[in-house]
Amino acid sequence: MFGFFRKRKGTSKNTAKQRLTAVISRDRANVSAEFLLKMTADIISAAVKYIEPDFDAVSVRIERTGTGACLCAKLPVVAYKQLGG
Amino acid sequence: MGRVIVVTSGKGGVGKTTACANVGFALAKAGKEVLLIDTDLGLRNLDTVLGLENRIVFDIVDVVENKCRIKQAIIRDKRTEHLNLMPASQTRDKNAITEKQMIDLLSELKNQYDFILLDCPAGIEQGFKNAIAGADEAIVICTPEVSSVRDADRVIGLMASSEIAHISLVVNRIKPELVRSGDMLSLEDVEDILGQKAIGAVYDDASIVRATNLGEAAVNIPNSKAGREYENIAKRLLGENIPITNSNAFGAFIDKLFGKKAVG
Questions:
Q1: Mutate to test the interface with A, among B145, B149, B196 (most CBs of A within 10 A)
Q2: Every domain of chain B and the residues it spans
Q3: Which parts of B46-113 fold into alpha helices (H)?
């Protein structure tokens, strides 16, 4: 069974890296997992009025800057939408 | 004016005291006047790691409470000319000193030494706050484990709002064989996650255990790999450009040579 996970998800260090990236992002923002998920959903729903993002490559995370934190949302653009009346 | 560097980690047991002793020793061997201050009140250990435990008369709490002169609480290491230790108190707790007292003490000592290294207690309570209060720079020690990296990120975040202007990262106890099999975060992984380049990568090394048993610094043991890397960290602190060796690539070559199966 563990062999199966290894093949599908890669090595245990990759799992560690993913978990750490997620938990540190929340620690830095001092927010819950739910908060970050909800904010991500709202950012995407606002953006889709103007663009069609590559949903598989969307990432929203909190990065640390010299003095505080920075919300970094990456939404690769597949297409722009027409601004209709 | 000397550089005051706090050695911290958040998580306990990752090698702060060992790093403090070895980097301090290496700087002293390089001819710098070094003072190590153990700020882990109630749980002092820098004295035993250096083998100086039998020479303690006064400690840092005696100094701030004016029970002795500063010089009386400083032990000069006899193995090298330039290494000095101010021990922590073993009987008092972390609230025996305030941040203000620490800042005052350091400003008095700062012009007498090239380097003052502060061995910080684990945790982020008063002892940590005291230790970072008077420091200009920090060395953050972490091991390639989830809990240690998370705690390192936390202390880096806490120090961002302090007076500390520069943070150096040291990744300790890397096990190359586990990194190669994909079961341990590599130096690069830790750098990625923390968004910070490391000043040193110390590989897991039995000579550290032996050195600590003897009360000797690993930098004084000729064939200690960890000792050599601590020397390199000291040189990098002094501004020398010494690249961090990635023993990973070499190890993978050896594995291949002897037919070990590489995973991941």
A1: B149
A2: 3-257
A3: 46-49, 60-64, 99-109
